[in-house]
Design a protein that fits this description.
Elements: H1 2-25, H2 29-52, H3 58-88, H4 93-104, H5 108-120, H6 122-147, H7 155-159, H8 162-175, H9 182-193, H10 195-207, H11 217-240, H12 246-255, H13 263-269, H14 274-301
Helix pairs in contact: 1-5, 1-10, 2-6, 2-8, 2-9, 2-10, 3-4, 3-6, 3-12, 4-6, 4-11, 5-6, 5-10, 5-12, 6-8, 6-12, 10-14, 11-12, 11-14, 12-14, 13-14
Length: 302
């Protein structure tokens, strides 16, 4: 437990460094877009593939399949709830779609992976990647449909997602007797090691931006749903179903992550309120700096 505390404190320190960098340098939006693109397209896929290049284990396969089943059930339940909300809500469709997207799509890669890596090491990245298969499918299908109900599923964007492809490639490696050559594994590991500090610095820098506190009401409510309400509802349900260890922590941590950093880009692309999305990103990340370590500590004590 002491080692985990040290790792979480290190994560918090990098957050604060990112906020300091933003205050001193006033990083432009183009920096975040470039950094996010670098992480999502290159360093995170490298980290995923590196972590999944491991010898086959029947126990690991069984846990992975159970995580996929849990992910499908939880996302299905959340989507059903969002559809009920859509039928009874009187909000304008674009406004409602943005609210639903902010609630549904979490910052699993930039916040969930660091916490799970701190707890389980490379195994945490492995299991998070498996769980995120469902998350990625939902994001680029139903997530896009929330903004444009008549929009078709973006199969090219979904199937061309680098994190999805690296996870599938990693699962193929895991299920086969093949292993990556040593030099390639080392290269992937080095590039993947960039991911955690890069992501945390970007999130911390976002938190260092100056925001209008009088426009935070909606952002705070949405943030509390993701970072507090989801784990409060999910953990007892999983516990009652007999989940423990990895099958409890991985879904709980990933569903307690803050609003996705891509929310502003999605909102801008599909005509939503990009400013509100940006505020929700910052506020939810601020809250999660406290809630994620507390949640991890509580779950590990069970």
């Amino acid at each position: 437990m002491g080692e985990l505390t040290e790792k979480l404190l290190a994560l918090a320190l990098i957050f604060m460094l990112g906020a300091l960098v933003q205050r001193r340098l006033e990083l432009p939006e183009s920096f975040y877009q470039s950094a996010n693109g670098l992480a999502v397209r290159f360093t995170l896929p490298a980290m995923i593939l590196s972590s999944m290049d491991k010898a086959f284990s029947l126990e690991t396969l069984q846990v992975s399949l159970r995580l996929l089943w849990i992910a499908a059930c939880v996302f299905g339940t959340v989507i059903a709830g969002l559809e009920i909300w859509r039928r009874v809500s009187k909000l304008p469709p674009r406004t409602l779609g943005l609210y639903q997207y902010l609630i549904l799509v979490g910052n699993t890669a930039f916040m969930g992976y660091p916490v799970l890596q701190a707890i389980y090491g490379s195994d945490g990245v492995f299991y998070a990647s498996v769980f995120n298969l469902v998350h990625n499918v939902v994001t680029f299908s139903y997530g896009v449909a929330l903004f444009q109900r008549d929009a078709p599923i973006r199969w090219g964007k979904l199937l061309g997602n680098a994190c999805l492809l690296s996870t599938l490639a990693g699962m193929t490696l895991f299920l086969s007797p093949l292993r990556l050559p040593g030099f390639l594994q080392q290269a992937l590991e080095w590039v993947g090691d960039i991911t955690i500090p890069l992501c945390l610095l970007c999130v911390g820098a976002r938190m260092g931006e100056r925001l209008d506190l009088f426009q935070m009401g909606t952002a705070v409510r949405i943030s509390l749903v993701r970072t507090v309400l989801f784990p409060l509802a999910l953990v007892p349900a999983l516990w009652a179903l007999g989940c423990s260890g990895v099958t409890l922590l991985v879904p709980a941590i990933l569903f307690a992550t803050p609003v996705s950093l891509t929310a502003g880009a999605f909102a801008g692309r599909y005509g939503g309120d990009a400013a509100l999305a940006g505020r929700a990103v910052v506020v939810s990340n601020l809250i999660s700096v406290v809630t994620l370590p507390v949640l991890a500590a509580v779950l590990l004590s069970l």
